[in-house]
Write a structure and sequence with these properties.
Number of helices: 5
Largest sheet: 2 strands, antiparallel
Structural class: mainly alpha
Order of helices and strands: HHHHEEH
Shape: elongated
Strand content: under 5%
Radius of gyration: 21 Å
Number of strands: 2
DNA sequence: CCCTGATTCGC
DNA sequence: GCGAATCAGG
């Protein structure tokens, strides 16, 4: 692959949006994150922050790079009141893919006050949290177990290979994501995949 | 271990 | 100019 104008533009866009080199590389395809980083440097748009204007040393790099930043700082949440963490009727679609929150996206603003308290916004994308519905007791038991040894990651710590299963009330400090290694291709660890993706077979309810 | 960006240097 | 290898860090 080569750096066509389009690709370079996408690169610039994503980079200024705060996307990581690896994410950009994936998006572009045909290039590694190294290639992306290399290109970024050659383009002279290294520093992404509008801050830290190189204090006392090496203002060197990117001297000829205007880099117009338009920090897309998104409002954490205009609406402070969140109704209730009601147990969302278990997402039991024949075609799985319970589209979790937008955990993938780079949170523009860290929902963490420097007082240590983690203030999770918990916008509208309320996750699965299946109610003890028609899920095998085994699977549920498994989940309980797993939650004990979960990594308890914060939103920002999630990656593509960490279980994105949410635990607790998003409105409290006791909210976290499982964080255990995900199952190949899935967004959750084995245990949580078990309750997140129900085989249609078990969904057949009392004949129609 | 997973990830991040930064630099170097042969091509 | 390009990007793998490497470095330095979280």
């Amino acid at each position: 692959m080569s750096w066509t104008d389009e690709r370079v533009e996408l690169l610039k866009k994503m980079w200024s949006e705060g996307q990581s080199a690896s994410q950009i590389a994936k998006e572009l395809g045909g290039v590694t994150r190294n290639a992306v980083i290399g290109k970024v440097h050659r383009l002279g748009l290294s520093n992404r922050a509008g801050a830290a204007p190189a204090p006392a040393a090496a203002p060197a790099a990117a001297a000829a790079a205007p880099v117009k930043e338009a920090k897309p700082v998104k409002e954490p949440r205009p609406e402070p009141e969140i109704a209730e963490p009601v147990a969302p009727a278990a997402a039991a679609e024949p075609e799985p893919e319970p589209a979790i929150p937008a955990a993938e996206e780079r949170p523009a603003a860290a929902p963490v006050s420097r007082t240590g308290k983690t203030i999770v916004p918990a916008g509208q994308p309320l996750p699965p949290q299946p109610s003890a519905n028609e899920i095998s007791p085994e699977a549920l038991a498994k989940v309980s177990e797993v939650e004990k040894k979960a990594k308890k990651l914060t939103l920002m710590e999630l990656t593509e290979r960490t279980c994105k299963w949410p635990v607790g009330d998003p409105a409290t400090p006791d909210f976290w994501f499982c964080g255990l290694p995900v199952q190949q291709g899935k967004p959750y660890c084995e245990a949580h995949v078990g309750v997140a993706f129900q085989p249609m077979s078990s969904r057949r309810d009392r004949r129609r």
